[in-house]
Amino acid sequence: MELYDVIMFYCPQCYQRNEHRFFHPEGKQKHYHATNIPLHVAVNITSTDVLCKGCQMPLNVCLEDIPAQQYNLLVRLDCSNMGSGMESWYSDYGRGYD
Prior knowledge:
Helices cover 11% and strands 33% of the residues. It has one domain (4-92). The chain is built from 2 helices and 6 strands.
């Protein structure tokens, strides 16, 4: 038996339901929601990059800041391969504006 648990979360871009397997020594193939993850699962979660099943956007899945009793999954768009936004516009097209 593989040692993992499944955590369900929603994409922040398209709101598609996604599931991800987190492998850890105490995994029992149980399913959990992204809010209020049990301690034995939460302490083994490391930052992971996944693709959304709906919009194919890269997502970074990691723990939020750890509170005293509750562990929540934080899912956000992975923009590391995207342009730098307004700064690149000024460099490329906005000559004379800076």
